[in-house]
Design a protein that fits this description.
about 75% helix; mainly alpha; globular; about 80 residues; single chain
Length: about 80
């Protein structure tokens, strides 16, 4: 199971990115929830999960729901 602290900070960051992209809050929460669930499913069999593994898998799953949200989350430190 992924660390609760990592999940909370990731959800908070994704909500901020979604708000900046003018994605409705309900839709954003649904994208985030589905992406996190799929990410946990993909990573559940690994013994060691790095933050990079988590982020890479989450971005891959986010791209299925919203390309722009995935892009801004992936490249946040490079955009500004």
């Amino acid at each position: 199971m992924l660390e609760e602290k990592l999940l909370k900070s990731t959800v908070a960051n994704l909500k901020i990115h979604a708000k900046a992209l003018d994605i409705p809050a309900g839709s954003a929460e649904e994208f985030i929830k589905k992406s996190l669930k799929a990410t946990e499913k993909v990573l559940k069999n690994r013994k060691v999960i790095t933050e990079a593994d988590f982020k890479r898998t989450l971005i891959k799953e986010l791209k299925k729901y919203h390309q722009d949200l995935a892009y801004t989350y992936e490249n946040y430190d490079k955009i500004i």
